[in-house]
Amino acid sequence: MQAIQNALQKWLFPIAQKLEQQRHLQSVKDGVVAIIPIIIIGSFCMIPVGLGNLFGGGFGAWVNDHILIFNFPTYFTTNIMSLFSAFFIAESLAKRYNMKSPSMLGIMAVLVQVVLCVNVDPENSMIFDITSLGSEGLFVSIIGGLLVVEITRIFEKYNLTIRMPESVPPMVSESFSSLIPFAFNVVLACAVALLCTTYAGTTFPKIIISLLAPAISSMDSVWAVAIIIFLTQLLWVFGLHGAAITQSVWAPFAITYAAENAAAVAAGVAPEHIFTYGFYFGFLQVTGSGMTLLLVIMMCRSKAKSLSSIGKVGIVPSFFGINEPIIFGLPVIMNPFMLIPFVLGPVIVSVISYEAMATGLVSLPLGEAPGFLPPGFQAFLLTMDWKAAVLAIFNVCLMGLFYYPFFKAMEADELRKEKEAEAKELEAAEAEAKAKIEQA
Amino acid sequence: MKILVVCNAGMSSSILVKKIGEYAKSIGEEATVQAVSSAAAGDEAGKWDVCLLAPQIRYALDDVKNKVKMPTACVDMRVYAMADGKAAYEQAKALKG
Fold first, then answer.
1. Partners of residue B78 in chain A, C-beta under 8 Å
2. Which positions bear Phosphocysteine (chain B) (predicted)?
């Protein structure tokens, strides 16, 4: 056991460290996670539609008649979300490189994104086709956002910028120094966009999507979700933030799925994807990684003082999805009792949750919903289906069942230790008293 | 004493932040304590005396240290679990030197 732990620790820690230091991956993660609030706003427009479906009848018909009004904000949020991700990805990477004006690079990336994704009809310059600025443009924004920064860095490295005399105010000289890389990026983007439409007869985002299609769709499967959850939990066993580490790989996919679902719902079509950001946090990480709520309640009620004191610290945060006190306090880390339920339990839960949606028992996510809420709330807001809330709470209860026997074994062990410590104290006190009497 | 506490989302560290503030007040010392996410840590460069890192992202120690450009150390797991304001405050003081 110890040997396996040491070996895993030796492998996992450097991997986590490498991932964290990989600037591009981290910038993409930060960039796409930053647009979640924008997708949430877009998804909130689906609430009337969801309620209409839930209640049906006259209310449902009324919602349907006014669907264009309810959907209005989606045109400016989810439908153009890749503009925002382009900004955040480039800004984040520029910050990681300690470049002078990260927000300038963010704007540069937005402009490049517009050039690459907006299709202008040459016959009628008033018609802008912006459909690719939504979920389709997300992967383009990743490529564009990163390239804009890298290209600008090359210009800065070789000093290919306009330099002003020292007497020029820094604000003015900075805006000029970025002019050459800015112009180069825009011209390059124009060239790519025109080449695609002229020679390939399609747009750049469409080419990217068809190239990445197999990779993109393969992430939305029960296997991918189960593996991701397994890795998340395993990392936590070593005290490493599993969600934060694995996210740098899966977040761009999950957020694309959420945006595609939101776009489908807004268009009046059924959503297709299950594995969204909210699915991961609202169903598979409710009350914290490992879904420990019932475990915390067991701890609070325990006769073992060491367990109940930590349980009491952790109970309120647990309701809001924060369980670090439990993971570090129980601790879950390197704890042979917790290894099986904490790592394998959530894998079973993910298979159940995924299949519940795949079979149509529970509605699919409509987009994204706010997290860090008590169990069931995010699941409901995400799907506008009461059965989703039931599923989330069921998951927490099922995890409680998994924890129970292991917790009891651990508690017995803990009580034995506490008793031994007490007996030792008592012995020491008695010996002291005896010594005092003898002295007297 | 100005202490920055960094964790993944700035959520769990906010529990410790409250306890550090309470402890500092109880011994009559002035402390400004704030929690931020590791993604936002770069914006805090040089604005604080010391930076404490949550143990679950200890793999990011070098990265965060590089971003915040001030004395940075990881909080002990037990201290973090129990939100032990006293221990964390003393660690921050020792770190400041």
1. 328-329
2. 7
Calculate the alpha carbon distances from A181 to A85, A112, A149, A172, A177 in Å.
21, 12, 9, 16, 8
- Nearest C-alpha of chain B: how many angstroms from A32? 12
Chains A, B: CB contacts within 8 A come to 77
Domain annotation covers residue A267: no
Cross-chain residue pair B56–A244, CB shorter than 8 Å: yes
Examine residue A387 and state whether it is found in any structural domain, yes or no: yes
The minimum CA-CA distance between A71 and chain B, rounded to whole Å, is 30
Where would I find the beta strands (DSSP E) of A20-176?
119-120, 128-129
Q: Which domains does chain B have, with CATH numbers?
A: 2-96 (3.40.50.2300)
Predicted TM-score (pTM) of this structure: 0.85
pLDDT tens, chain A, 440 aa long: 667 667 777 787 888 888 888 899 989 988 998 999 998 888 888 778 777 777 777 888 888 788 788 888 888 988 899 999 999 999 999 998 988 889 999 999 999 999 999 988 777 777 888 889 988 899 999 999 999 999 999 988 887 777 777 777 777 777 777 788 899 999 999 999 999 988 888 889 999 988 888 888 889 999 999 999 999 999 998 888 999 889 888 999 999 999 889 888 888 888 999 999 999 999 999 999 999 999 999 999 999 998 999 999 899 999 999 999 999 888 898 888 899 999 999 999 999 999 999 999 999 999 999 888 999 999 999 998 999 999 999 999 999 999 999 999 999 998 998 888 888 888 888 888 888 888 87
Do A50 and A167 lie in one domain? The reply is yes
Give the one of B15, B39, B59 whose C-beta lies nearest to A13's C-beta: B59
Q: Is position A35 within any domain?
A: yes
Comparing CB atoms, the residue among B42, B56, B82 nearest residue A241 is B56
What gap in Å lies between CA A369 and CA A42, rounded to an integer?
A: 10
Which residues on chain A are in Cβ contact (under 8 Å) with B85?
Answer: none
Domain end, chosen from A194, A216, A238, is at: A216
* Interaxial angle between packed helices A138-157 and A179-195, expressed in degrees from 0 to 180 and rounded to the nearest 10: 140
- ipTM here: 0.82
Among residues A198, A216, A234, the one where a domain terminates is: A216
The Cα–Cα gap between A380 and A366 comes to 10
Instruction: Tell me which residue range forms the domain holding A342.
Output: 277-439
- Interface residue A244 vs chain B (CB under 8 A): yes
Do both A291 and A194 map to the same domain?
Answer: no
If asked whether residues A188 and A315 sit together in one domain, one would say no
Burial class of residue A184 (count of CB atoms within 10 Å of its CB; 0-12, 13-18, 19+): middle
Q: Total domain count for chain A?
A: 2
Among the listed residues A37, A31, A55, the one whose alpha carbon sits nearest the alpha carbon of residue A137: A31
| Residue A266 within a domain | no
Question: Is residue A91 less than 8 Å (CB to CB) from chain B?
Answer: no
The DSSP output letter for A288 is T
Residues present in chain A in total = 440
> Do residues A191 and A305 share a domain?
no
Domain check: are A282 and A199 in the same one?
A: no
Active site residues of B: 7
**CB count, 10 Å around CB of B95?**
16
Across the interface, of B12, B54, B81, the residue whose CB is closest to A310 is B81
Do A296 and A157 lie in one domain? The reply is no
